[in-house]
């Protein structure tokens, strides 16, 4: 009888044991699931905080780059004030409204081109003549912009490139080209801010100070255009004979258009075409008949290899 009872009790204890094991397994799986869920939530929180941190770090880096560019370009802005002061003074002397002169400087950052432009406008030059002269005078900016494309991010959008192109000048390009790393948009934005402000402010001061200055001083300031051009071409011509040849040839062509009968009619109405022909003609003659040191060394190297 006892054996029969024991035989019937074994399955019951076995079922209870299996039930306990099953409940433990379920609890273990639930605990494991809860632990994994908590870990995933914790990871998501970390990722979210990292994203915010990276965004804040990126904004701080861009702000630092802008400030660095601002501090780098402040000397250019201070240097632009006296030159643009002269531009505002000369523009008012030529009959331009002071606010028109300020608007020209605010929308153009091309010192020599602006001086040549107001001179031609006051002389009654045609629009096509004015456009061609501006292109010739400012054609160096094409090369500067092309060079800067090698130092900026290839994925930079076109609207940022257009803003950077507006601020390309000789001095800004020189400082940007000296950067050892790639030029970022915030840095270049800060670099061009002070020059734009200095150029516009100087024009404003010169335009509205024209009526306060004695006529003799105003007449003396009228030669600023020629002084600026001389300051651009004389220093490099002292070390490079090719530039000296180009200056002499361009001067000879300009005198030809000024004093030779019948030909001097081209230089009427502002003299835009004479400037275009003189500049392009001198450059073409020098490129054809005068070889630079680098070209001579290249040809010599090719002959040695042959």
Q: Helix and strand succession? A: HHHHHHHHHHHHH
Give the rounded overall mean pLDDT.
76
> What is the strand content?
under 5%
Number of strands: 0
- Quickly count the helices: 13
Features:
306 residues, 2 domains, 13 helices, elongated
Walk me through what this model shows.
With 306 residues, the chain is mainly alpha-helical. It folds into two domains: 158 residues, no CATH class; 67 residues, no CATH class. It contains 13 helices and no strands.
Give a nutshell description of this structure.
This protein is mainly alpha-helical. It has 13 helices and no strands. It has two domains: 67-224, no CATH class; 240-306, no CATH class.
